[in-house]
Amino acid sequence: MSFPVQANGSPRAVPNSEASFFWRKLSEHRTALWRLASIGLFFLVWEIAGRIPISFAFPTFLETLRAFVTMTLDGSFVAAYAETLQPLVIGIAISAVIGIGLGIVMGLSRFAEWLVAPVFIVLQAAPMAALIPLITFVYGIGLVSKTLAVIMLALPVIVLNGYKAVRNANPSLVAMCYSFQGNLWQRITKIIIPDASPVIFAGLRLGLAAGFIGVILAELLITPTGIGDLITYHRSVANYAEMYAAVVSIILVSTLTLAALEAFELRVLRPEKRKS
Amino acid sequence: MRNITAQAASAAAVAAGSDVAVEVRGVCKMYNEVEALRGIDLDFPAGKLTTLLGPSGCGKTTLLKIIAGLIPATSGEIRVNGQTVTGPGPERAFVFQDFALMPWATVMRNVAFGLELKGMGKDERQSIARKYIAEVGLSGFESKYPHELSGGMRQRVGLARAFAVNADVLLLDEPFSAVDEQNRRKFQEDLLELVEKEKKTFIFVTHSIEEAVYCSDRIVILSRRPGRIAQIIEPEIDRTASPDAIRRDQGYLDTVEEIWQGLKRYVD
């Protein structure tokens, strides 16, 4: 019973050395390849759908790509993002600081939980787009309103994630810190926050994604500025390729920012995740 | 083997002799309506390994955590080196059943963590940690993360962390229950060497009779809930013999059998 099992004509039995090298190289990057294939397939379907066409207002992928390149080169994206990113960055920064702070306090104190959690649970469930006209009514059409729109969308998810993460910090590690006479501050900074950081960061990522929604909503609903202006303007003059290019650009910026945040988290907070 | 029966147990438990590291006096513990421990009086001799053994749910881990100061007793008190316990203290170190290692920290940082909490400088605590990492047999693994280690190795990290703070009393809560059988045996042998070398007081919770008899100078058997002292046994096994000889020793086997006969009635 000792003859090799692969000898009975399986194609994997005696691999050609050159081909095996090729396949090995390929399988090293398999995940990346599948991702590329997925994106490529999506663009292909887009191109076909644009060529049928499913709507006169639906440009093909290649038209959109051309518009994207033109707008990148003529600087209209740069100008637009300089404006759009202002309320986004300010809003996310405020939401992150307040959100993580509040989340930690709520996770540690039952009293703070009762006081604050219901507000954010309601806020998270509320349709924020409906509240944006209200902000305009109070704070006008300037930067403050747009920043507030970002905060209103981003803050609840950051707070609630932070609070759940802290509340569910590994009790065994907390007991360990206590048994080695760690004080409250050490328990929070050395155990609870690092242990909670994956969920806190998940909240930050969701908050950032929500912040992008908030800033675009604000630019579409309050006053057209920045990227919201590009979208509104090109729609009104029926430059659909340019309009879609602007939409794609915001998706791209949002995705890249989220990926950067994830990379930052792995690098700084959870070094053990990088290795595996 | 010296067998001290239940009637004489409380007297013998207290009059243990000259050097007592931990004194337990009239400790009771209620979890709401459930009585976990009732009137525990016990002395733990210094420099010895004492095991708390009993059926599951007998409160042995509860007693250990009360001694550690992790949970308060409902009544009664604990004295360590004559000082009444009100919380965790530097003279005690705890080894956790689930290891309680920080997954984001290397072996080095985990072992040095007790010293880090005390505010010791990095170089100093790392040199101490390195010594104990070597002592538990993990040299070369200093920069590994816990998930890269086996269960037995992780618990060695937990043990090294407890040694590093240089406490007089080490409290081990079922340290081998999450370690596979073969690693456990090796670990038990190594632990005995460390007990010999470190001259510390060990209090050890286990539900394995063999483990208790193999490792302990003294075994305290607790009854089923509410936990009370049922029996105290001193195996008096010749520890100079090789581990394999001990496991075949008639005295060892008789003690295991005797404890099993005593515990059998608590098992459904």
UniProtKB/TrEMBL annotation, chain A:
The keyword Transmembrane applies. The keyword Ribosomal protein does not apply. Its main location: membrane. It comes from the Bacteria. It is a multi-pass membrane protein. Keywords: Cell membrane, Membrane, Transmembrane, Transmembrane helix, Transport. The chain crosses the membrane at residues 32-49, 88-108, 115-141, 147-166, 199-223, 243-264. SUPFAM superfamilies: MetI-like. Residues 81-262 form the ABC transmembrane type-1 domain. It is found in: Cell membrane. CDD domains: TM_PBP2. Belongs to the binding-protein-dependent transport system permease family. This is NitT/TauT family transport system permease protein. It comes from Ancylobacter vacuolatus.
TrEMBL record, chain B:
The keyword Nucleotide-binding applies. Keywords: ATP-binding, Nucleotide-binding, Transport. Residues 22-249 form the ABC transporter domain. It comes from the Bacteria. GO terms for molecular function: ATP binding. It holds the Pfam family ABC_tran. Belongs to the ABC transporter superfamily. This is NitT/TauT family transport system ATP-binding protein. It comes from Ancylobacter vacuolatus. The lineage of its organism: Bacteria, Pseudomonadati, Pseudomonadota, Alphaproteobacteria, Hyphomicrobiales.
